[in-house]
Amino acid sequence: MKKVSFCITCMNRFHQISKTLPTNLFDNLPNKNDVEFILVDFGSKDGLKEWVLSNFSEELRSGYLQYFYTDTLTTWHASIAKNTAHYFANGEVVVNLDCDNYTGSRGGEFVMEQFDKFGDNLLLHQFSGAFNDGSCGRISMRKEFFLKVGGYDESFLPMGYQDLDILKRLHLFGLNYELVKDRKYNNAIQNTKKDSLKNTASEMSYQKMNLHNCILSKGNAEAGRIICSRNKPGIREGVFMFENNTFISV
User: Whole-model pTM?
Assistant: First the structure.
């Protein structure tokens, strides 16, 4: 069993993941026996599939990179997408790694060191403190706890507040929150909220979505609802994994 799974989701963001993925794979090679990258492609139409299959044959063969494809999610929904990637992760510790994020050199080892330092109940947040730099979603916890709280809240609107909500619920569940700001391990490609929303097919602004989800999150916390009611978060059907040079249903 792997120790750390970096969970990546992507829908039509080839212009960013084409920069981050090769760097992240290279930067974690010394720890590839303990680290894996889970990439779930939600029906991208910008050449992502062809690029992955053409450029990472060895990483795919070894399982260091695992590539999943599904067109079931027709428009972007952050919570559903992230739940899907975390569900297919094999590691003891799951790390949300947005497709515009860099792990840093031996970033997986850095995550393992934090769990060695703080213990299994760690809720690790590798956030710089600046909400516009793309690092707020870098969250790590043991997969067993992620599943126990039901993952990200899929009742939310497609974007906004899902990261802060799961941090709040996991902390209320009993995990020990630690904010680790080391810039060597939480860099990201900055993008606008327009980039974040372009695949949601919604005319609502990010600010309105964020506010709606924030109010919902606070109401749930006040009522003691820290476990999402859905029993099986994420997409489980219509997902295909590339293995042995072909796609198989998982």
Answer: 0.96
